[in-house]
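TA notes, week 10

Several of you asked for a full example with nothing omitted. So below is the full record: structure tokens for the whole chain, then the designed sequence directly under it. When grading your own attempts, check the secondary structure regions first.
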């Protein structure tokens, strides 16, 4: 079995106004932040333009860093149906961007991310950001919670330790398995 010595993970915290992203390099078990930020689409008035801008920015991040895998926050259920539909569209656009470049995707619930990063599934955004400062050995911008959440998603994926490409066995079947099993459907 080939042991990966280096992996680039793109973490995404989907949003309809602000979408966080974080790119980490994992080298021999050590994590390093390559870039993190927030895609602000609140200034655009139509949903179509927002989705286009999200897609374009995620594609540019993918092209710049060539991530091996993408980790994205799974949808959670809220009371406002319209908000959920808009969030689902934003998640879909991000996933389509990754799949268009054959990047496997796995989803993590917010509770799983918080549990993985802090040890507490009910941790606050501030607690997640503080623990990421420690884990990533750098002071993150505390005003960019969407971005630190995205880094948390990438770190969570690293902590889960398995390559998405090997998730065909067992119960964990993600988007990576779908991509591997259906390469002809990505064209």
């Amino acid at each position: 079995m080939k042991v990966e010595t280096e992996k680039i993970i793109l973490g995404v915290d989907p949003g309809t106004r602000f979408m966080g992203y974080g790119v980490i390099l994992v080298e021999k078990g050590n994590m390093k932040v390559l870039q993190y930020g927030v895609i602000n689409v609140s200034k655009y008035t139509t949903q179509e333009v927002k989705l286009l801008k999200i897609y374009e920015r995620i594609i540019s991040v993918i092209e710049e860093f060539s991530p091996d895998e993408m980790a994205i926050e799974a949808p959670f259920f809220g009371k406002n149906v319209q908000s959920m539909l808009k969030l689902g569209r934003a998640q879909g656009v991000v996933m389509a961007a990754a799949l268009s470049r054959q990047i496997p995707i796995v989803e993590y619930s917010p509770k799983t991310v918080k549990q993985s990063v802090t040890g507490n599934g009910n941790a606050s955004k501030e607690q997640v950001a503080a623990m990421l400062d420690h884990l990533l050995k750098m002071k993150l911008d505390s005003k960019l919670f969407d971005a630190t959440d995205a880094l948390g998603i990438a770190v969570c994926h690293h902590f889960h330790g398995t390559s998405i490409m090997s998730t065909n066995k067992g119960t964990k079947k993600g988007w990576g398995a779908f991509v591997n099993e259906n390469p002809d459907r990505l064209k």
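The chain has a mean pLDDT of 86. Use that as a sanity check on your answer.
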